[in-house]
Amino acid sequence: TLDTQSAQLAALRQATRQEIAALAKRVAEMQSRLLRLDALGERVSVVAKLDQGEFDFSVPPAVGGPEAALPASGTTIPALSLEIDRLSAIVASREQQLDILSGLLADRQIRQEEFLAGRPINSGWMSSAFGRRTDPFHGTPSWHSGVDFAGRLGSDIVAVAGGVVTVSGERSGYGRMVEVNHGNGYTSRYAHNQKNLVAVGDIVKKGQVIALMGSSGRSTGPHVHFEVYKNGRVVDPASYVYRTLRR
């Protein structure tokens, strides 16, 4: 009957309006999500100094393909569906870029952690260089296998790179000493400590406080004797104290 058809038509219109409203809400949510992704991507790329080139979150991703006409129906549901597909592609592109950025940052953090550089102290000064010097006890020519950094008794001694503690204890001539294996053939030593704060087997991070400055062993006053070994051979630590990681 006419009344039945009218009721069915009204129900269809109501269902269509609800579907359109749901699709429009989804479009708005995706647009909001995309704005947040773009803001996050721009912030991360700037902090990571990767804001030049491929990681440009300020412009839409490049797209292409043959052009096709819209269906002749003229309804708004296909248009909203196309908009959802378009936004989905952009969101997927942004998420892929963020995943790549995350991987690059993680790799950089690992490299920075493993990179042996910097001073083994937060405050103090270099009091004796590497190589030939006059022995402070006998006044005779001698060989100094590290560099000394003097400072206040009990001040922090820090790891110059991440690694695993291989020695923490008394060593003849060194007093209380910490040795850290950094991998890739590098090892560092920190000697004459007042107190060691790490144990053998501990994993330490770059800049972590591993001991307190002292004057144990063969020492004339508070300082840290700092040595660097590369593939088992002692090298001048000064070249590592002042080196920087190229990004």
Describe, in plain words, how this protein is organized in 3D.
The chain is α+β, with helices and mostly antiparallel strands and 247 residues long. It is 36% helix and 27% strand. The protein has helices at 2-47, 76-114, 238-241; strands at residues 125-128, 131-134, 141-144, 147-150, 156-158, 163-171, 175-183, 186-196, 203-204, 209-213, 223-230, 233-235. Strands 1, 4, 5, 6, 7, 8, 9, 10, 11 and 12 form a ten-stranded antiparallel sheet that branches. A hairpin with a 3-residue loop joins strand 6 and strand 7 (175-183). The model is unreliable at 70-75 (pLDDT under 50).
Kindly, what is the distance between the CA atoms of the first and last residues, rounded to a whole number of angstroms?
A: 77 Å
Sheet-strand content, in percent, reads: 25-35%
Number of helices: 3
Q: Structural class from helices and strands?
A: alpha+beta
Question: Major sheet, described briefly?
Answer: 10 strands, antiparallel
Helix content: 25-40%
| Average pLDDT | 78
Stretches where pLDDT is under 50 for at least 5 consecutive residues are 70-75
> Could you give the count of β-strands?
12
Encode the helix/strand succession as letters: HHEEEEEEEEEEEEH
Quaternary organisation: single chain
Shape: rod-shaped
